[in-house]
Design brief:
This protein is an alpha/beta fold. 38% of the residues lie in helices and 14% in strands. Helix 5 runs parallel beside helix 6.
Length: 286
């Protein structure tokens, strides 16, 4: 049975010239965004504000997480010219804060870490004053791959836990909870100046106590920026929503997370990993 969305999850879809310009630019540049591939509910809003989260290494993921709308299947080799095209598009969009993520590429020896590093460097060449946030996969625990990304000096390194450990076999069967925590912890060991960030989806069947324990695990790993959002079922083939979280409950979780020690928290039904990423980073620096 598919529950009907509550009123607070209904919103108008802004369009207009800015939205169309961003869409046309991405198409012309032969670039992908997680906004489009993952069917993000904020796509229209973000494109209209001339922001986007670039998705590198193709539109197909080697994993098939049961919450995610990104296509899965075999992928060709990464395009060596893609980092330069991302940097050019970011410059043309006038971005002062650029978010780069990728599909998971378990087929590549370094999981695509060198492509992350090259993309960061290309952006810095074209727009040296821009801030760069990366949202990385787990690189299958490859510490050398992580070090490659860290040494490119992103301004924020984000890696999402997505859910509580008990639900990993159901939600992210090829991921490992402790491995993801270790990635965040190692990032701080390699470069303590890089803020780390992570996010959880609520509404998958997690308990309040499990969420509290996961927040503590993140803090223990040195994570300082947190995003909490509502899981929404992308298609009927994906996991069903267990519960729709009321906005007041998201407010409660924000207060809780700040009290236990997170520096910055975005919490709400439509919050996603990169939603208002620039504002969270700016608040952290104040």
């Amino acid at each position: 049975m598919h529950a009907r969305k509550p009123r607070w999850l209904k919103r108008s879809l802004p369009t207009g010239s800015a939205y169309e310009k961003v869409r046309a630019l991405l198409k012309k540049s032969r670039l992908h965004t997680v906004c489009q591939e993952a069917r993000c509910p904020n796509l229209w809003e973000c494109f209209s504000r001339r922001t986007a989260t670039f998705l590198i290494m193709g539109p197909c993921c080697t994993r098939n997480c049961r919450f995610c709308a990104v296509d899965h299947g075999p992928s060709g080799p990464p395009d060596p010219e893609e980092p330069a095209r991302v940097a050019e598009a970011a410059q043309n969009m006038g971005l002062g804060y650029v978010v780069i993520t990728s599909v998971t590429r378990d087929d590549l020896p370094d999981g695509g870490a060198s492509l992350f590093a090259k993309t960061i460097k290309e952006i810095r060449k074209r727009t040296p004053d821009a801030f760069v946030e990366v949202l990385t996969p787990d690189f299958q625990g490859n510490t050398g791959a992580l070090q490659t990304v860290v040494e490119a000096h992103p301004d924020v390194l984000n890696h999402n836990l997505e859910t509580v450990p008990r639900l990993y076999p159901l939600v992210r069967p090829k991921a490992v909870y402790r491995r993801s925590l270790e990635l965040l912890k190692r990032t701080k060991q390699y470069d303590p100046t890089i803020p780390t960030k992570s996010g959880l989806m609520l509404g998958l069947g997690e308990s309040s106590e499990e969420v509290k324990k996961t927040l503590q695990d993140l803090l223990d790993a040195g994570c300082c920026i947190l995003t909490l959002g509502q899981y929404l079922q992308p298609t009927r083939e994906h996991l069903q929503v267990d519960r729709f979280i009321h906005p007041e409950e998201f407010d409660h979780w924000k207060e809780t997370a700040l009290k236990v020690g997170f520096s910055e928290v975005a919490s709400g039904p439509f919050v996603r990993s990169s939603y208002h990423a620039k504002e969270l980073y700016q608040a952290l620096r104040l």
